[in-house]
Amino acid sequence: MAGGKERKSKHTAAAGQRFQGGIQFLKTKGQHILKNPLIVQSIVQKAGLKSTDIVLEIGPGTGNLTMKLLEVVKKVIAVELDPRMVLELQRRVQGTSYSSHLQVIQGDILKTQLPYFDVCVANIPYQISSPITFKLLSHRPIFRCAIIMFQREFAMRLVARPGDPLFCRLSVNTQLLARVSHLLKVGKNNFRPPPKVDSSVVRIEPKHPLPSVSFKEWDGLIRLCFNRKNKTLGAIFRQKTVLSSIEKRYRTHQSLQDSEQMQKLDGEDIVMLGDVSNDTSMAIEGCDYQDMDTLEDEADLQAPSSFKDKVLGILKEGGFEDKRSSKLTQDDFLRLLDIFNNAGFFFAS
Question: Which domain of life does the protein's organism represent (predicted)?
């Protein structure tokens, strides 16, 4: 009897993961198909679509959302990894007026070179939420907006503001590049099979023009600041690992600057330098071949305690020593990066 109950339970679970066409959804691949037509219609409406739009749909699954998109836009480009879903999509449009308006790309969205599109609509596997978000934000030309279904906690991190418990590095980095707003909460029972958590639909509008800052440089600083987001910046930048990381980049930048200065010297200057120009140890230390007193001063500056004092001095002068990352605004972080850069400190990996 126990075995019979077990077989029945397994059969019921398997049946609950199939839709009317007999395709079994794989939770391991993040396949949770949105089945509620009211929510599908709401997503289409909130996307603000135009009849001339080309829409990129990521993870169309069996095409419930795809068919609604095709009713209102010029073209849908659907990127789908699972060949079974690709066949189902093609089956649904076959013999209809929509067949010429749907392009299906079978492949991994993270490895696919994205074509031009005006709007992105996606119900994505939650485990790749972050890389998909930043892949979209790095896409050129800039698209109008993306309407994406995320796991609810991830979505709330995207829209979190300074002081919110979920405000984090993800919040800051995304909001540097885009305006993000929460549109709709979607309960887990609206999916087949239902996921373990609720979801949310978020609107992402890339900023145009983008802030004039290197994203790698920005992210390098933000990564350090959110090392312990509830500690003061003074406490974070006192940590040996943080200071070591900053000093390594500082020395590298100084070395590169010296190398560039050497290349600008004319032939006569190089001859005057003689053997000193081949002294790699001096170049590594960031020397600019001034008099020995200046060199000794610079050597003192590079000593561990003095280096820490210099870093903390920058924070103090900028009014950041007692501030916490969890409370800083985008403008605060931009100003912090600016004062560090102006002092010769850089954070790009």
Answer: Eukaryota
